[in-house]
Every structure is written in structure tokens, then in C-alpha cells.
Write a structure and sequence with these properties.
Blueprint: H1 2-48, H2 54-68, H3 71-84, H4 89-102, H5 105-110, H6 118-149, H7 151-163, H8 174-193, E1 198-203, E2 206-211, H9 215-256, H10 260-274, H11 277-289, H12 295-308, H13 311-320, H14 323-343, H15 348-363, H16 365-387
Antiparallel strand pairs: 1-2
Helix pairs in contact: 1-2, 1-3, 1-8, 1-9, 2-4, 2-16, 3-4, 3-13, 3-14, 4-6, 4-14, 6-11, 6-12, 6-14, 6-15, 7-14, 10-12, 11-12, 12-14, 13-14, 15-16
């Protein structure tokens, strides 16, 4: 009888965990999708109007990615513009690096779900910002080196010569099949209730609905998505604690996060499979917040996720076959590989900096809010505006 009760309890927890994970992924899709729909034209304009100033190009990459919540989308736009000759290869390089920084805003926002619990918030915020700080440090090191030596771009151009002509392989993310229909239905329902214009088009025999996003619709969808995000994370965290504090936790530590190499490889492979570093890095935040994993264990995973997310761009560029498009996609990958080579051995630096920042943020939440606002929005917007 006890075994049956334990088994039934385990099955219920597992089913609830799957449902909550689906809600979490749905919230990320909704949140990012709303911003992408509303700001995509602005992001394209930002990218297209890049200057020869590498710092401004870097800030454009940060801002464009932060407002559409997807480095894959930003880099795809950049690759397309470089391939079409609209954006120069050299101007695109700092922008690609900026996209790396901008994409980490999502998991930083996810960490706010634990804001009411100081201990969990401190751990969650540190696990999120260690990703930001790694990207910032990598840019601070490699952008000046690239500008002075062109070693990343030259390496990418050399590899391009070997790859151009290779037939590209398209890979459809399973995440889209899991959450995209529900996200689209929710967006359509909210838009219909609010009487937002919806246009119907038919392409290749398939009906497609386009929603004309207003500022009010963006706000409503964002609030709804954040509600789903915080609720799903709250209950996911509680269930994970009860499930993982035991045998499964030991398995997780032993086989996935037991050493740097397995953690790093898992980060790459998991991100390649879902094609979104925002999802893979956000999923780890509640595990660190709950005390199940620590920063030393998840740092290589986070760095691996950075490399994994660049595969989408490479596949897209190989399909097009445009040499410069392939090269800029490879710049993104090589930049992250070189960053991993330097900062995984020196992981104590980004880890200590993120711990210091999370301590400040826990003591005063304005530090956390100010950090997100200043790094991802205020500084880029201000300097881009001043340059114009």
C-alpha cells in the first residue's frame, strides 16, 4: 500500500512537472514572441542603420536582441542583411557580439520569480547574471583583439572557403511544435478580445494569421506571459525540490553536472536540440535557486549553451550558400568557442562578479532592476541616440 501511494505520488509529481514545464516554455514563447512582433521592424531598422563605429554596432546588437528577446532572431536578421549586402561584414561582427549580451536578459528576468525569497533570489540572480558577465567579459577581451588583428574574421573566412557549396541542413526546433500553436492561439484570443486587427494570408496552401500589435496588446500579452512564467516557476521549484532532493538529484550530479566537460557538452547539445539559449539557461535558474545545483556546476553548461545557439545561424547560412552570410555565422560560433576556451579555466572571475552583484541585488532590489534597465536598455539607447 505504501509503495502504491509513493508510486502514485511520484507519477502525479512527474505529470505536474511536465505540465508546468510546458507552461514555462509557453510563457517564454509568448514573452519573446510579443516583443518580437512589436519591435521586429525597429530591430531591423537598428541593424540596417549600423555605422562604422564598432561600439555603436555592439550596442545595436545588445538593444536589438534585448527588445526581441532572441539572439537567434537577431543573428538571422544580421546574416540575411550581410548576405544581401545591406550590412557590411565588418560592421556586423560587433553586432553579433552584442547579440550575445542581449540574449541573456531573458534568464535574468526569470530570476525575479524568486524575488520574495532572499536566499533563492540571490542564488537565482547569480546563476542568471553569470551568463551576462561571461558575455560582457568575452566582448571586452575579444572585440579589441578582433579590431586590431581580425583573427576571428580571418578564421571564419578561411573555414567558409571549406564550407561554401556544402548543402545546408534545416532543423526544426521541437519547442515550436510543443508550444507555438498554443502561444499563437493565446495571442489570437487576446487580440480578438481587444479588437486588434488580424490579417489572414494564404501561402503554399497554408493559412497564416498576422496580428497587428499595439502597445496595449504588447502590455497585456507580456503581463499574461510573466504571470504564467512566475506561477510555473514557483510550483516547478517546489516540485523539483521534492523530486530532486534524493536519488534523482544524485543522478543529476553524477551524470550531467559531475564535471566541467559533461556540463559543457550537455549545454551545447541541449541548446542545439531546442535552438534557444534563452530556454536552456532559463531552465537552470530555478535549479540553482532551489540549491540543487551551484554556479561552479552550471557555468560550463551556460557557456556551452552560448555555442549551441549559434548552430541555428550556421544552418541558415549554409542553406543560403552566401559566403559572407556563412562567414558572419561562423564569427558568432568562433567568438563563443574562444570565449569558452578562455573563461572556463578562469570561471572564478565571472562567478565571483555575479555573486557580488547578486548580493547587492538581494540587499536592495533596485540594484537588480537598475542593472537590467541600464545594461540592456538605458546605456545602449542613450549612446545610440547621442551618436545619431
Amino acid at each position: 500500500m505504501t509503495i502504491n501511494k509513493e508510486l502514485r505520488s511520484a507519477i502525479i509529481k512527474f505529470v505536474m512537472m511536465i505540465l508546468l514545464l510546458w507552461v514555462f516554455l509557453l510563457s517564454i514563447k509568448l514573452f519573446g514572441g510579443a516583443f518580437k512582433h512589436y519591435f521586429k521592424a525597429d530591430a531591423k531598422n537598428l541593424i540596417e542603420n549600423a555605422t562604422n563605429n564598432p561600439m555603436i554596432s555592439l550596442l545595436i546588437g545588445i538593444l536589438a536582441t534585448a527588445i526581441i528577446q532572441s539572439s537567434s532572431s537577431t543573428t538571422s536578421i544580421i546574416i540575411a542583411f550581410v548576405g544581401a549586402g545591406t550590412l557590411s561584414f565588418n560592421n556586423a561582427i560587433p553586432m553579433i557580439m552584442g547579440a550575445n549580451i542581449g540574449t541573456s536578459v531573458t534568464n535574468t528576468i526569470v530570476s525575479f520569480a524568486n524575488v520574495k525569497n532572499p536566499i533563492e533570489f540571490r542564488r537565482s540572480f547569480a546563476s542568471a547574471t553569470v551568463h551576462d558577465i561571461f558575455n560582457i567579459l568575452a566582448v571586452a577581451l575579444f572585440l579589441p583583439l578582433e579590431l586590431s588583428t581580425k583573427f576571428i574574421s580571418k578564421s571564419a573566412l578561411f573555414i567558409t572557403e571549406l564550407l561554401v557549396g556544402t548543402k545546408g541542413v534545416k532543423f526544426d526546433s521541437p519547442i515550436n511544435h510543443i508550444v507555438k500553436p498554443a502561444a499563437a492561439k493565446i495571442e489570437m484570443t487576446i487580440a480578438s478580445i481587444m479588437n486588434n486587427p488580424i490579417t489572414e494570408t494564404i501561402k503554399d496552401g497554408k493559412v497564416k494569421f498576422d496580428i497587428e500589435y499595439s502597445g496595449i496588446l504588447l502590455t497585456v500579452v507580456t503581463v499574461f506571459a510573466l504571470g504564467l512564467l512566475f506561477v510555473s516557476l514557483k510550483y516547478m521549484s517546489e516540485i523539483m525540490k521534492s523530486i530532486l532532493l534524493g536519488k534523482f538529484e544524485r543522478i543529476l550530479h553524477k551524470y550531467v553536472f559531475n564535471n566541467m566537460i559533461t556540463s559543457f557538452i550537455f549545454g551545447i547539445l541541449f541548446t542545439v536540440s531546442v535552438q534557444s539559449s534563452s530556454i536552456t539557461t532559463s531552465l537552470i535558474v530555478p535549479l540553482v535557486g532551489a540549491g540543487i545545483l551551484n554556479l561552479n556546476q552550471i557555468f560550463p553548461y551556460t557557456v556551452g549553451a552560448n555555442i549551441g545557439t549559434t548552430i541555428t545561424g550556421i544552418l541558415a547560412s549554409l542553406v543560403s550558400g552566401n559566403p559572407f552570410g556563412v562567414s558572419i555565422a561562423l564569427v558568432h560560433t568562433l567568438f563563443n568557442i574562444f570565449g569558452a576556451a578562455v573563461f572556463i579555466p578562469l570561471k572564478s572571475i565571472p562567478i565571483k562578479l555575479s555573486e557580488m552583484l547578486s548580493k547587492k541585488a538581494t540587499e536592495n532590489k533596485l540594484w537588480a532592476i537598475g542593472y537590467v534597465a541600464i545594461v540592456f536598455f538605458i546605456v545602449p539607447i542613450s549612446l545610440i541616440f547621442i551618436s545619431n
